[in-house]
Structure formats: structure tokens, C-alpha cells
Specification:
The mean pLDDT is about 90. Helix 4 (about 125-145) packs parallel to helix 5 (about 155-165). Strands 7-2-1-8-9 form a 5-stranded parallel sheet, sandwiched between helices. A two-stranded antiparallel ribbon has the order 3-4. The chain has helices at about 15-20, 90-105, 110-120, 125-145, 155-165, 190-200, 210-215, 220-225, 255-260, 265-270; strands spanning about 1-5, 25-30, 35-40, 45-50, 55-60, 65-70, 170-175, 205-210, 230. The relative contact order is 0.21. The chain is an alpha/beta fold. The chain is built from 10 helices and 9 strands. A hairpin with a 2-residue loop joins strand 5 (about 55-60) and strand 6. The chain has one domain (about 1-270). The protein is globular.
């Protein structure tokens, strides 16, 4: 049983969904601390700081990559599901205009844009709640090939997953906040947290990315707890991108793939 997890991000990039689909259980770490930037290993092995993607997502415009950024209110070191969005900037209308400008000539725009509009214009309790809505929306489209007629819940996603045959591994999506597994920021070894999650979900394998491995994972400790480790080595297959003229750009927001590709091609790209 393979478990993986990620903090909720805003219309996440493609590797995020590739990891979801290649897990038996995917946990959304909805109570982790919100951060605008985080540390990650560069190609030279040196740790760098860059976007956490908790409030940003990259799409493709004529001039190249453009980041859609959701402004948040500065409330200190809050969990992502308690970090309020700043609705005083009119960002929703701006995001929709940019998305429309970038993708209005793509094959799937007419089908998807009304539902994306409904998702973005809604006011959410936190950036975490907005991000979760964007993840569940995209998952629904990936699984069904069409957008949901209303805001989708994790229970509805799980019902769809259990009721149909699919070409991917995913069986269930869960919120870590709805389990007994608790994490006190900075006061507990993250590896103990992973071990507790695996025990709770009866998972014997943990599926992780390179950033986690370099930032905090203790392989010996996890293996001693009986947990097999599998690192994600997904590579983004090239697909047709109608927006922009700068050639193919890899690992953009899920919005880019959904707009440009039908359901079969979307799954082909994400499944590698």
C-alpha cells in the first residue's frame, strides 16, 4: 500500500497530479504551515529558496511563464487552512482575464472555463480551502474527462474512484487534519510524522519527491520502521501547447494540460 502526500497548492503543477495518480492513498496535508517560499535543492546540489506554490501557479503566455498569485493576509505563522486570502486586490477578475487570454483558443477552453470561473469567484475561508477546491476540480476532470456541474467534495472524488475502473493506482484521497495524526510545527521530527501516517493508513511504502528527501527525510529511520521508500522520477511528456510561441514548457499548472489536451492525452501525460 503506497502513501504519498503534499500540502495543498493552487492549481498545482503536473508532477503533483502524477504523484497523486501513482499513489494508493494521497493525503492532503491541509494543516501544515503556510509559506510563500521554501528551501529546495538546486541542480548544483546547493540549497536554494523559491516559490512554495501554495499561492502561485505557473501558466504559459506569449512571453513565456507567468505566475498567477493569490494574495494572502499576513497573519504570522499560520496553518495553510487558517491563512486568510486577501480579497481587496481584485485578483479573481485578473486571474480569469489572464486565463482567458492565455487559453481561449485551446481545444478544451469552452468546456472548462465556466467551471473554473465559478471556482475562482467563490470566496473561501483560507488559501488552503481554495487550493483544495482547485485540486479536487482538476482530479474530477482527469478522472471523468469533463468538469463537475458543481463544487466537488473529497467524498465525491472517492466515490468516483471506487465505482469505476481507471488506468491509475489512486484509490482514495484524504485530509490529514481529519485523522489522529497531528503535527506540531517545529516541535516534532517530520520523519516520526511520516511513520505515524503510514501506520494509520496501514501503508508499507512512502512515495516522495526530491525536495522532501533533501529537506528532512531520514531514510535509515524510515526503513527501520518497516517503510519502503519510492522516489518519484516522473518526467513530463511533451504535449501540444497552443498558448505562446516559445516552445514546449514542462511541468506547468494543471490548467495548461487540461486546456490543451483531452482526457486520454491528459492521463497519458500524467501517467508517464
Amino acid at each position: 500500500m503506497r502513501l504519498s502526500g503534499y500540502q495543498p497548492q493552487y492549481f498545482p503543477r503536473l508532477h503533483y497530479f502524477a504523484r497523486i495518480l501513482d499513489s494508493d492513498i494521497f493525503e492532503i496535508s491541509d494543516y501544515v504551515q503556510f509559506v510563500k517560499k521554501h528551501a529546495y535543492p538546486g541542480k548544483d546540489g546547493v540549497m536554494k529558496r523559491g516559490k512554495s506554490y501554495q499561492a502561485d501557479t505557473p501558466i504559459k503566455l506569449q512571453g513565456g511563464i507567468h505566475f498567477l498569485t493569490v494574495p494572502v493576509k499576513d497573519g504570522g505563522l499560520l496553518p495553510i487552512n487558517n491563512t486568510p486570502i486577501d480579497y481587496s486586490h481584485g485578483w479573481q477578475e485578473k486571474h480569469l482575464k489572464i486565463i482567458e487570454s492565455a487559453y481561449k483558443k485551446t481545444p478544451q477552453f469552452q468546456m472548462l472555463f465556466p467551471s473554473i470561473t465559478n471556482l475562482i469567484v467563490k470566496r473561501y475561508e483560507s488559501i488552503g480551502h481554495l487550493n483544495i477546491a482547485s485540486i479536487l476540480f482538476a482530479l474530477y476532470v482527469i478522472v471523468n474527462g469533463v468538469p463537475p456541474k458543481k463544487e466537488i467534495t473529497v467524498m465525491e472524488i472517492n466515490n468516483v474512484l471506487s465505482g469505476n475502473m481507471h488506468p491509475f493506482r489512486l484509490k482514495k484521497v484524504v485530509f490529514i487534519s481529519e485523522t489522529p495524526v497531528k503535527q506540531t510545527f517545529g516541535a516534532r521530527d517530520a520523519n516520526d510524522w511520516i511513520i505515524d501516517m503510514c501506520k494509520y493508513f496501514r501503508a508499507d511504502e512512502y512515495y516522495f519527491g526530491g525536495t522532501s528527501a533533501s529537506a528532512y527525510m531520514n531514510f535509515d529511520k524510515l526503513k527501520s520502521a518497516g517503510i519502503k521508500l519510492a522516489e518519484q522520477n516522473w518526467i513530463c511528456k511533451e504535449y501540444f501547447q497552443k498558448s505562446g510561441g516559445d516552445g514546449f514548457i514542462t511541468n506547468l499548472s494543471i490548467l495548461d494540460l487540461l486546456m490543451n489536451a483531452d482526457g486520454n492525452k491528459t492521463r497519458e501525460v500524467l501517467l508517464g
